[in-house]
């Protein structure tokens, strides 16, 4: 979306133009859902998180100053809502990767991990990572955001994002190799 077009939509939405806000929602809905789903691994929960996130965006829109891109601001809200949902469910039993799944793991090509039948195993391994490492991996690799965008969402430096990415991917690789070699 052209920056001028987006700024116009934001300005109109701030003036309670519901059609303008609806356009913003339609343009960002899919990516927001993908981010939420990456955290909660449940379609209904992800849909609830996105809905609540857009309600929060609507309420906070008058205070949006444009210091960050609208998408970055929205994704930060979605990420925070997702992390809150994960914390609420943390008392539930954590899903563990079964050693019976070893024969379904992909080869050493990391791109294979993010596609098809192996995605479920990756998602299960992702949920065992520390929160910030999981967030960085989900936002950067599963949702295709830039390191700069991830740093804006997580409110940390790009160097910190790179550190979380490196450590998170290393732990993922180790978790999946242990299962693959079992």
Overview of the molecule:
- By secondary structure, this protein is mainly alpha-helical.
- It has 2 domains: 1-92, Rna Polymerase Sigma Factor, Chain: A (Orthogonal Bundle), CATH 1.10.1740; 95-182, Winged helix-like DNA-binding domain superfamily/Winged helix DNA-binding domain (Arc Repressor Mutant, subunit A, Orthogonal Bundle).
- The protein has helices at 3-14, 18-40, 43-60, 70-89, 119-126, 131-142, 147-154, 158-180.
- Helix 1 (3-14) crosses helix 2 (18-40), helix 2 (18-40) packs across helix 3 (43-60) and helix 6 crosses helix 8.
- Residues 91-111 have low confidence and may be disordered.
Q: Total helix count?
A: 8
CATH top level class name of the largest domain: Mainly Alpha
Q: What shape does the CA trace take? A: elongated
| Number of beta-strand segments | 0
Average residue pLDDT: 81
CATH superfamily annotation of the largest domain: RNA polymerase sigma factor, region 2, helix turn helix motif
**N-to-C SSE series?**
HHHHHHHH
- Residues in β-strands, percent: under 5%
**What is the third-level CATH name, the topology of the largest domain?**
Rna Polymerase Sigma Factor, Chain: A
User: What is the second-level CATH architecture of the largest domain?
Assistant: Orthogonal Bundle
Helix content bin: 55-70%
What separation lies between the terminal Cα atoms? 48 Å
Structural class estimated from helices and strands: mainly alpha
Low-pLDDT segments, ≥5 res: 91-111
Number of domains: 2
Largest sheet: none
Rg over alpha carbons: 18 Å
